[in-house]
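Render this sequence as a predicted structure.
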Amino acid sequence: MSDNTISDNTIVVGIDGSESADRAVVWAAQTAASRSRPLRIVTAVELPTHLKDDQIAESRAIAGSRLAAAETLAREVVTEPPISVTTDAPEGNAIDVLIAESANAAMIVVGESGLGDTVSGMLGSVANALCAHANSPVAVVRGRSIDGRPPMLGPVVVGIDGSEANQPAVATAFEEASQRGNPLVAVHVWSDVSLTQLPAVPDQWEDIASAEEAVLAECLAGWQEKYPDVEVRRVVAQDRPVRVIAQLSEQASLIVVGNRGRGGFKGMLLGSTSYALVHTADCPVLVVRR
């Protein structure tokens, strides 16, 4: 079914017929069902001006076949209750199409590769661009599979740096944990240098750690009151943020990070920690823009 409308509670998944896109469809369908939200499946159709009519028709036919297969997959994944699924094949390149979709979507979902990308083992250019420029949260479905599907069990892990820019990620992480019925692991890393680079002041480390634990507690206080159903585990570590969160991702169902922040989470359009995790995490990663 084709529909050009989109509401602000819609979960949008971008596809291209790849295996990576299929995994994104499965994750998006499960997520939409758990929230009673509509699912919109989109594939971009690039039509250069030099194409002939028969080539244009073929491109549109291929897009239609992809959408039909993805819709069938989504409905197979979620049978009860049935979810609302719409499909569309807007003209344009994948990045522009999905950024436009993000203006009204609740979330954009993509696979870690595919959508025109050919470099194996690296984050696709579409996913990378969306994490930096989309107007909604972006889920990059990557990492391990359980019976061929992304993991849905396991804690939600959120990186917390104590900055105002990080608050949307914290809010999203609590909501995700509550909706999934999963515990939340709140991670605060107080040093973004290797241990060998730290000055030899072990007598001060305990005081620093206590201060950083207080920072984390302050960041969580209001949210734990708002979501009393969410079991929260706190992790304060002296290490690199990427290393700590990547290790936790091996048992997690979702990593939530802000697109920028301070300290270990600082960056420009896409922070260094967020960028690294969408390349290396062993589970889906949700990037939340401030």
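Summary. Residues 75 and 82 are 7 Å apart (CA to CA). The beta strands are 11-14, 39-42, 85-88, 107-111, 138-141, 156-159, 184-189, 232-237, 254-258, 285-288.
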